Amino acid sequence: MKIWLYRGAMALAVAFLILTVVNASWLAPTPQGNPQLIAHRGVSQLYDKEGVGRDTCTADRIEEPVHDYLENTLPSMAMTLQVGAQMVELDIAPTTDGEIAVFHDWTLDCRTDGSGDTRDASMAELQALDAGYGYTADGGATFPFRGNPDNRIPTLEEALQVLSRRAIVFNFKSRDPAEADLLAEKLEASGRRVERMGDAFYGHPNVIARIREYYPDAWSWTAPELEECSRDYVAYAWTGYLPQSCRGRTLVVPLDKQWAFWGWPNRAIARMEEHGGRVLVIGPMDVENHPRGLALPEQLQEIPSTYNGYVWVEDIWTIGPALRPSADRRRADVRAGSEDALPARRVRLGLD
């Protein structure tokens, strides 16, 4: 009996040693490069996400504004260049006259002074709307963004001009592969070299399958792929084997789940890079286990110093300058006002 106990203990010790070495981050090569910040919808107004569903209007639940920029508008895109974003996420929608609008919602009723389905309007009709009309932080007592001519729905071509030197993440909102055809047509016509720029695409599997036919080497993903890779990595990567679901795909690592990913960060990054994959850090999962981006500058401190992958950011306005202070182009008074607003957000997020 003693000899079997001894052998069992030795086997466990050897297995523990092997697992420790196989997954030792410090034994892996140090990743090269710096974190790449993805500005979700550009510089935007953050809002309370509690209870938000697919059709919830979010313009009427924004925080007290500390800057003048609205998501998916040209000034917002331009400002991302001034606050340290490496990539800008944009939402796209086709119009009745064969153009592509940069706009998030399926309908116009929430954010604009229009109504009806976004895809039932022409580009001219969309650009005649006030895209800041519905934003309020005080339950409708005031609407601080109404009447500003800069707050209009831009065309894809206008967005490409502003972001000619920045990578773009294109978000398809529908399941129709024809939208991928239209986007590829517009990108080719503009002369944009998608794969060289580092552009990315995400959305429904039907649409992403089509866009991959045009840009097989570009970064792209679907929600099911993200879930499968992360689940399989946690389940199997302790062996040193990278699951097939992660090869050439994207590993999503929430801030509050980093401990669950074998070999994090250096070994995990090396495994993904070896097989043509990418790593994306997001903020902590919410109470309903939904993903979200970074919303507070101190969350950057939770990311390992050697991390060189992508970071999904909800508030590039404060987080970009926090990561790279030398890139901060905000006025001193605006910077101070932004910092003064953060305590209320920490309380709302349950982080204070």
Automatic annotation (TrEMBL):
InterPro entries from the UniProt entry:
GP_PDE_dom, PLC-like_Pdiesterase_TIM-brl
Q: Which Pfam families would you find in this protein's record? A: GDPD
Q: Where is the GP-PDE domain?
A: 35-189
In its UniProt entry, what is this protein called? Answer: Glycerophosphodiester phosphodiesterase
